[in-house]
Specification:
134 residues; five-stranded mixed β-sheet; alpha+beta; Nuclear Transport Factor 2, Chain: A
């Protein structure tokens, strides 16, 4: 069974609700390949807000959730949205992003302790036509 703390966290992303996202993460940390390091709740909200601004229709579909031993949860997700806002200072492309990833979430005492996410960092720039050859 998936922990209610994980459900609140995932729902906050789809609701594009920074306050709920911060509350769900609490004193935990968030890390993924694009976050630039481990983020606290305020840092995660700023990171998420940048994504929500770039993709106002951003939505996550949960493809699989597995509750493991010791409060560990695995969430396989798919993120979709159309780039209608600036992303990292670049103009919007109007193109769709369809990105798969996985989050490993650790819960202790009913609170999220850590979220570690993984996804293909080249997929988004490639889908938006922003890849650069060096």
């Amino acid at each position: 069974m998936i922990d209610p703390a994980v459900e609140r966290y995932l729902a906050a992303w789809n609701a594009r609700d920074g306050e709920a996202l911060a509350s769900a993460l609490g004193t935990g940390t968030y890390l993924d390949p694009g976050s630039g390091g481990a983020l606290d709740a305020a840092g995660l909200v700023a990171y998420a807000q940048a994504l929500w601004n770039a993709f106002p229709d951003l939505a996550f579909t949960i493809e699989e959730q597995v509750a493991g031993e010791g409060g560990r949860h695995t969430v396989v997700w798919r993120m979709r949205g159309i780039n209608h806002g600036s992303l990292r200072g670049l103009p919007p492309t109007g193109k769709t992003v369809d990105l798969s990833g996985i989050d490993l979430i650790r819960v202790a005492d009913g609170r999220i302790v850590e979220v570690r996410g993984w996804f293909d960092t080249a997929a988004m720039p490639r889908q938006l036509g922003l890849q650069v050859l060096v």
